[in-house]
Design brief:
Elements: H1 2-36, H2 54-58, H3 67-72, H4 75-82, H5 88-99, H6 107-119, H7 121-134, H8 142-148, H9 158-165, H10 167-174, H11 178-200, H12 206-226, H13 246-259, H14 261-266, H15 277-289, H16 291-304, H17 307-332, E1 341-342, E2 354-359, E3 370-374, E4 378-382, H18 388-405, E5 412-415, E6 419-423, H19 436-448, E7 457-462, H20 470-486, E8 489-494, H21 498-503, E9 509-513, E10 515-518, E11 521-524, E12 529-530, H22 538-544, H23 549-563
Parallel strand pairs: 1-5, 4-8, 4-9, 6-7, 7-8
Antiparallel strand pairs: 2-3, 2-5, 9-12, 10-11
Length: 564
Amino acid sequence: MPVAIIIGVIIVGLIIRGVFLERKKRLSLYASLKNDFGTIRKKEYKYGNAHRDAILKRNPSEGLIDDITWSDLDMESVFERIDKCKSAVGEEYLYYMLHREHYSDNGADFDRLCEQFSNDEKIRTDLLYSLNRLGFIKGFSPFDYLDFLTGKKSIFPIKHILPILLYIPAVTLIFFYPIWGGVSVFLAVLINVFLYFKEKRKPYGIMESIGLLIRLSGEYINLARNYPEYAGILKEGHFPGKAVETDSIIKTAKAIKSKGRYLAASGSGRVTPTGNPLEVILTYVNILFHFDLITYELLIGNLCGNKELFEYMLYLFGRIDAAISVADFRASLNGKYCKPQFTAFNGDRSDVHLSIKDGYHPLVENFVSNSIDTEKGVLLTGSNASGKSTFLRMIAINAILAQSIYTVCAKNYNAPVFNIFSSIALKDNLSGNESYFIVEIKSLKRILDTNIGKFPVLCFIDEVLRGTNTVERVSASETILKYFKKRPILCFAATHDGALADFLCEEYDNYHFSENVNGSDVYFDYVLKKGKADSRNAIKLLKSYGFPKEITEEAEKEALNLDS
């Protein structure tokens, strides 16, 4: 009896200590979430990013940024600049949004959500805390966990109950034959431990799936109780599925939470243990008595029968998490952003235009902002390393941000909604045995093949047909760019061919970047200027990087001969 009392006191003490530590941890996390808002911080992807495109893969459709454009613009880095999501499903939803170039159809709804989270610190932090509890899962998407449960049915857990029953005769035997009884209890423990770990690993993912859905149900109930206005914000068009009545979700979530209360308390199904002493104690209880496995078997059919409701809940929390992340991104810009103004497109070339004032690249520190207003399209000339490619990417990225998250790194943005393409950073396709020129042709062809329907095309090309000889490059480039101009295609093209700028001066607006030379040093101001570039700097750059005079002087002579 004294030993039992001591053990009981120790357990109670551990539970009290666990509650105290959990409360301290909760308060610390809450303060951290509050203070982190609006800061620029590199997010640590400790569980990797393999799950990032889960929603995208589940919902392939037209109107998505293609892989070439995504790669050209380094949109992975842009995503990571914006992403401060606290849950895996939030990350996936934001990633999906940035790929959906026509998302502006519902952009006003998303913008209102972002504004609410920007202005109300308490709601924002409470929701972040809830999202943090959903968390991340190493190597998997929450939607993968739903798939693990497909086709599963509840069965009476006889295979878990029978091993537990071995304890009854083993403990009874202790009172008559203590030694044999002790050996029997030891064997019963070994059998239960062995069967527990064997079953828990088979099949992998099911236990974690149920643990996630129980937490998801609990967080949805908290959301509906504390902030009911957000429990039903997901409408058709905001996500690929159908909207669901809030009452039916709450009813299902309450049933799941009630049946899974023990699992939540024991931390079973949680990928990363919290270290709570109560969870530790209940973990050993589960190993010995299989209580969590029994609960799983009884719950699994109920979960599988409500897959659509769980998908809705995942998309709902994903949208909320993404909206808070975008609100955070906006706050980190210190007011240097605007909301886009979209104009109507009625199918005519005259409806195609783009205006951006003081636009800048979100990944460039100490940026130089630039403005442009064009209806024709832009032919960009200028020195090497003067900023042409960065300018093209700046316009393209801001067009995507405007149409996806209703946020532009500029003072003003005005344009119709576009299909957006780029052909900037192409490479030889060695695995497909294709030269650079073939890759370039295919890249341009996909723009020409775009079906102009509801949306015009916005395209960005760095050095049209650079993979071929000068004569054919200039003639073919001129023809292609003139063809673009005849259709609802707004093209921004950079080139080193001054002749091309001359040939297309009527069809395109000419702009350029230039350098400033001070002795052997070359400086760039990265300011966009009207007109065609009238200087070259390739040989000057060779000098500034210390190339031998023999090379640079001979190069200058050859350049003069070619010009003459």
